[in-house]
Amino acid sequence: MKIPKIILPLLLLLLIIGCSKDSANPDGGTPGIDKSANLKALGASANELLSDAKFTSITIEVVYVTGFKPTDAALNNLAQFLGKHTFKPDGVKITTRAVASSNKAPFSIEEIAQIEKDERTVYNAGDEIAVFIYVADGSNENDANNKVVLGSAFRNTSMVLYGKTINTIANNSNSVDKNNVEAAVLNHEFGHLFGLVDVGSPMQVNHEDSENEAHCNVDGCLMTSSIEFGGSIIDMVNNNNVPDLDDLCINDLVANGGK
Fold first, then answer.
1. What is the layout of strands, in order, in the sheet containing 128-136?
2. Which residue of 130, 154, 241, 242 has the fewest C-beta atoms within 10 A of its own C-beta?
């Protein structure tokens, strides 16, 4: 992991990509809709997302606060990432929808879970597994001077991106594009939904970072802690290259029904 040079502006020193390994307790559901399959612990649906044994397609509902819509390039990159690592013969469908601000920033993960409860409309049905992505207009409440959180996978089919923080990083760097920052965060959080590292997809070879659980210890891997805790996003997507999974992470996915 590269360490930012001390001569860089202070702002860049604070631009650290991160995601928190959060969890939210399942809550009640709307009468007539069975939400229980989408309110499980992180990693619980790893095999269902990866294989076609139960679900032959994935539908992704992206709900974003007005002004924070993910770029088409980032969503296309996510679709390619899913096509590369999952068996879904009936494809991947991504829908987007704008909503008003909750005016609750900075956010706790419990507040994000409540927003999901209020806004999510798509749940598992038939042979289609559903994923909810919320793009918030603020930051995570745990952001600190030397670390900020860009995203969190907090349930088996739920994640949040902190759009305001992502925009700050992209707007203050001449070397990375917003779509590549978004793509890196989206793919990384989906890696957690896939059960990486050892949170639903058992490790075939021990490669978990001993200091950062649920992360890979192979330099350059999409699932390393340098993407989440203490690593600069500017370094990770420099030259506009979105990191990919290393062989050890891929082997874990293959063993759990993926590609």
1. 92-99, 57-65, 128-136, 158-162, 151-155
2. 241
